[in-house]
Amino acid sequence: MAAKQNSCAAAIDLTPYDFVGFGNPADPKPTCGSCHPGGGGMEYDREGHRYDQRLKAQPELHTTLDGDYFQSAWDKSGVVEADCLLCHYPGYDWQARTKQLKLRNYKWAATVGAGLGQVTGAVAQGEIPKVKYDLRKFNPDGTIDHAAFITSPEPRNCLFCHGISDQKKRGFSWGDKLNPDTHQQRGLKCTTCHFLVNDPTKGVATINHQIAMGDDLGEGVAPELRNTVYSCRECHEKGIMGAPRPKHEKIPPSHLKRLACEACHIPQIGRAPDLAADVITGAMVDVPLVGKKVGDAAVWQPQWLRHPRKGLIQPVNVIHAVWVGNRDADGIIYPLFFKEIKPVWERLKGKIRDDNGDGVPEVNTPEEIKLLLTTCRQVLAEHSGRFKQISPVYYKGGKVWELDQNGELKTSEDPSLEEPTFCINHNVSPAGMALGAKGCSDCHSKQGKLYQDIAVDPYGPEGKPVTVKQAWLLGWTPLSFSFTNLYLTLLSPLFALLLLGLLLALSLHYVVIGPRGVCLTQCPGELELFSLDERVIHLVRMLSFVFLAVTGLLFAFHRVGAIEFLFGSYETARVWHWSMGLVFGLSSLWAIVRWWKDARFAPYDREWLRVMGGYLSRREVHAPAGKFNAGQKLFYWLTTIFTLTIGVSGVVMIFGQKVTPALWHWMVPLHGISALILILAVIGHAYLGTLANPGTWRLLVTGRVSPEWARAHHPVWYEEKVKALEEQEAAEEEKGGEDVAQS
Amino acid sequence: MRQQKGVSLLVALLFLGLVAFPAAVRGAGKAPPFYLRTETGAIINPVTGENADQPYSPRQTCGACHDYEAITKGYHFQQGWDVIKDGYSKEKPWVLSNGMMGKW
């Protein structure tokens, strides 16, 4: 929009007068004013005067550099008052209104749009238009009935404007059979969610017609209205309008904290939006993301982006702006007006190739960019009087291209120049069609959502879009992505099989091989194998591990119902889980320090490993062993390693919202894999410590064993223990003898 | 016989009520018929030919009963025009408002 005050005519771009009706009347494309219901800047200038009345009073204004009146004819065309029937009359003819605006018949547009009559003559042709009303619309006394008008607008009226603009931004088309939305199919209208907002800060009621708005990612429009619309959560958690409460039984609760509802529930859209908005030709060229043109019936998946304010992953469409600007003396890059770009493009005709064959040449190679910038510099030097410095830049794929002092091409990134990014909130699919309905691989696989190609530059050197994988944009690396996929799509589903296999193997072992030796409880426990502190460590570690395993499995297999039944909420269960994790971690550290000397491998352990501790033989086989046999030592080191990995990853996950995505993506599968290995190892350990060796559980209580049992199972330790006892007895006897002699 | 007539009358009244009630409800709260008006507020009557070649003015026609000024304060009508000014953004001097009228 042109500024109010301007230094020269070259600095004036789109005036409010042209905003309303610039364009060829024969072209059905809308003008800017088509999607503006009137009132505001289409009725009053920036000083609050009606344009038509002021220009009649001061006709010289249209020859000045006043941005509101420059080359205008408001006094003849009239102004566009707020056209109530554009929204409140279901039979409104928006196309007829657009044509009247292009004919510059501004104040006649509402009459024609509502179908009340026909207009002949055009201000654009220097005529004074005349109305001929349709008498069928009037009562015999010349009045009009309200019956045809409605209080709450129909979607058709909203879509006059939002259908076209949103098609480019989001591929959205409410009510399109190729592009269904579950809400639309259930009879909801635009106004159901986009109701009138009462704005208490302005002290006015709903009559102020502030319409509830959704969200946007960037600078957006009307920030004061952001998120005033009904949110998914609001309706589906409170049951507004009978909205069903989501079960999300197969979805990890952590996903519900990290992804917006739309991320999974808008898996695809059936109409092509813009990939790029290219103005290099001096006109807006919409480059479709899929299909041959914007609006084509073509299926695509929205890009995922982390919302800069909410942190949630949100489906979006990024429209890559391709434009030319000039870096002025103040260092700011000013986009060029269409009227400045057109002569540049005229000189470039035939010199820029159409590499991708879409019928429009694109400036994509270094040679073409250099040619564009050189030509641009010449044209601006000849024609433009609005810049203090001529230094053209080309913006494409989020990069600024310009010529250095030697005339060579250089690129840079300017964070202030954002790519227009549009949230996608419509075309919602029901649960059965949402991502995740078929399992983790809907996203976490090389055929899934996260491996989708996302365009980051509309034209690479070959004219085709430059793409990167969706997962990389969210912080994954190829390695962490594969690691996560392995865990989610292979190890996690296989866990049940591994668990069953282990239980089957242990059952077979019990039946075929059977328990070893005599029951420990049948002999009196004369030797202390484990002291009180060791038994306490073991007990605390065992109980905390069982708690962690159960809650962890509930998390891993998304048993939301069970979690809520046991803990009330997912968040409470999570706090319990990590609190108990701290207990397990501390007791494990204690155990690691307490037993590390006993867990060191000795040469005789080879013999134990050779005969597998005798566990695979039906005969009674005994192998040398210290306080811990080689199997227990292996268990010690295995649990030490995976306790450390599960502990480190667990601590990182406690601070999940604050760590980088890259770190998070490594820690989650690491935690899961460590847990699965530990659970399987502990089940094996528990079997060997109870059923396979009857009575061994007594060790947990008394810590004592009989000499016979110790000689059979831990002979090295037994010999050391006996030797130590004998030495102790000898020392005591010696001390006793000395005492007797002295007395 | 008299009792039968009474029942018939009651049924007829009930039927009339069922037919008439929805129509009455539909009509409730609706404004009476109105004249179109020109931008100066003059009546347009195509039947009599009074100002019949003039376009109607929403401000004068709808605004006769509804608060046109309050309604047009909404974003859909202002689209940034209520905050537009030169120098709105120092970083992007070509941006003059936070709406479609003034935003680039």
List its salient traits.
heterodimer, A: alpha+beta, Fumarate Reductase Cytochrome B subunit, 7-stranded mixed β-sheet, elongated, B: 104 residues, mainly alpha, two-stranded antiparallel ribbon, 4 helices, 37% helix, Cytochrome C (chain B)
Kindly state the mean pLDDT of chain A as a whole number?
91
- Which blocks of ≥5 consecutive residues of chain B have pLDDT under 50? 21-28
Q: What is the count of structural domains of chain B?
A: 3
CATH topology of one domain in chain A: Fumarate Reductase Cytochrome B subunit
Radius of gyration of chain B: 27 Å
- What structural class do helix, strand and pairing data of chain B support? mainly alpha
**Which strand-content bin applies to the residues of chain B?**
under 5%
Report the CATH superfamily of one domain in chain A: Transmembrane di-heme cytochromes, Chain C
SS strand fraction of chain A: 5-15%
Radius of gyration of chain A equals 39 Å
Task: Please sum up the structure shown.
The complex is a heterodimer of chains A (743) and B (104). Chain A has 743 residues and is α+β, with helices and mostly antiparallel strands. Chain A contains 25 helices and 20 strands.
Word description of this protein:
The complex is a heterodimer of chains A (743) and B (104). In chain A, 41% of the residues lie in helices and 11% in strands. Chain A has 743 residues and is an alpha+beta fold. With 104 residues, chain B is mainly alpha-helical. Chain B has three domains: 1-30; 32-72, no CATH class; 78-104, no CATH class. Helices cover 37% and strands 4% of the residues of chain B. The termini of chain B are far apart. Chains A and B meet through strand 2 and strand 4 of A and strand 2, helix 3 and helix 4 of B. Chain B: This is Cytochrome C.
Topology:
The complex is a heterodimer of chains A (743) and B (104).
Chain A: H1 16-21, H2 51-57, H3 74-77, H4 85-88, H5 94-102, H6 109-113, E1 117-120, E2 130-133, H7 155-170, H8 182-185, H9 190-193, E3 196-197, E4 210-211, H10 232-238, H11 253-258, H12 261-265, E5 269-271, E6 274-278, E7 285-288, E8 297-300, E9 303-306, E10 313-318, E11 320-327, E12 333-335, H13 338-348, H14 366-383, E13 392-396, E14 399-403, E15 409-412, E16 421-423, E17 453-457, E18 466-469, H15 470-473, H16 478-512, E19 527-528, H17 532-556, H18 560-567, H19 570-595, H20 605-610, H21 630-654, H22 661-689, H23 698-701, E20 704-705, H24 707-713, H25 715-742
Helix pairs in contact in A: 13-14, 16-22, 17-19, 19-21, 21-22, 24-25
Chain B: H1 2-27, E1 36-37, E2 43-44, H2 58-61, H3 68-71, H4 75-78
